[in-house]
Amino acid sequence: MQNEQNYNNELKGKIALVTGGTKGIGKAIADKLTQAGAKVIVVARNHGQKPNPEHHFLAGDISNAQDTEALVKEIVDKFGKVDILINNVGGLNSPGGGYSVLTDEHWEKDLQVNLLSAVRLDRLLLPLMTAQKDGVIIHISSTSGLVPQWEANLVYGVAKSALNTYSKSLSNEVANKGIRVLTVSPGPVKTEGMEAFLNGYANNAGISVEQMTQTMMDKIGGIPMGRMAEPTEVAELVCFLVSPKASYLTGANYLIDGGNIPL
Q: MF terms per GO, please (predicted)?
């Protein structure tokens, strides 16, 4: 994109960990951090379709406590530290239809993926950041945490709302230890996951993907810019927030939604 920023190797010498970093927003962030000079570790269940050979890939499921502990041990043994943590793993795993169709299993799975995976990873890595008195943690949330749609994403919205509150609380706790904690809340983003979501709902409704996309945009109140975000646009914001240019920023939740949320 022509408006991409040049970070002039600003992150050289930094170790960055990106969860869910093999596709969509996570991969775009991992690619951008690599371009800015960071050594990037990506954690995901598999390599994805187009792995970046410059990334250090580790397989694992961070919604599982034992997997997460093993991954952190491996990271510490191999790299010694983590300077930048991007908690990007998340996803909509529960059915739409409101409270009555949601079981305990649906709630537990979405809370593990969208909230507790970040809480767990922060808890394991914060001692390293505290010891070096430096670090940045970014929680990738969603505008669904502010304006949930009960018909489609009730559990997801609740989990992201909780993530927002947790992130703000954590930022206050660790700010005087040299650690910055920030939240980034994208609106609809043009990823493979979003395309699959729209295709599924379009098929169920018997309408075209274009009609489903417009229905979704209308349902959330419209996007003044008239389109979904590109993953690289979210990555640009994240790369700025972890850079020295953002050294006084902590505790904030940055919306990147094309003007959707009327705040």
A: oxidoreductase activity, acting on the CH-OH group of donors, NAD or NADP as acceptor
